[in-house]
């Protein structure tokens, strides 16, 4: 099958699926929570990169790994303070 046939069948099915999920109240809340978490996850990567660049000039190295990103994404500002405290004291 060509990609045009696959896309012309697949896109309406995906859109119908998303419409059904969004119409259902509980799934809408779940999707909203997931989108907030993924935004915080992406922002944590950006924040760690900025901290890595800024503190790197002082001789410290901030690791950008999944543990650090999940900690910041879940805890927020206390997570940032915790990660930077670990960097300075260890």
From TrEMBL:
The chain crosses the membrane at residues 6-25, 37-60, 66-89. InterPro entries: BofA. Keywords: Membrane, Transmembrane, Transmembrane helix. This is Pro-sigmaK processing inhibitor BofA family protein. The lineage of its organism: Bacteria, Bacillati, Bacillota, Bacilli, Bacillales.
């Amino acid at each position: 099958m060509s990609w045009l046939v696959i896309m012309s069948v697949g896109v309406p099915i995906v859109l119908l699926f998303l419409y059904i999920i969004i119409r259902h109240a509980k799934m809408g809340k779940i999707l909203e929570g997931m989108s907030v978490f993924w935004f915080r996850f992406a922002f944590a990567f950006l924040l760690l990169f900025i901290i890595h660049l800024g503190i790197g000039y002082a001789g410290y190295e901030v690791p950008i790994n999944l543990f650090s990103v999940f900690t910041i994404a879940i805890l927020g500002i206390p997570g940032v303070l915790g990660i930077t405290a670990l960097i300075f004291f260890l």
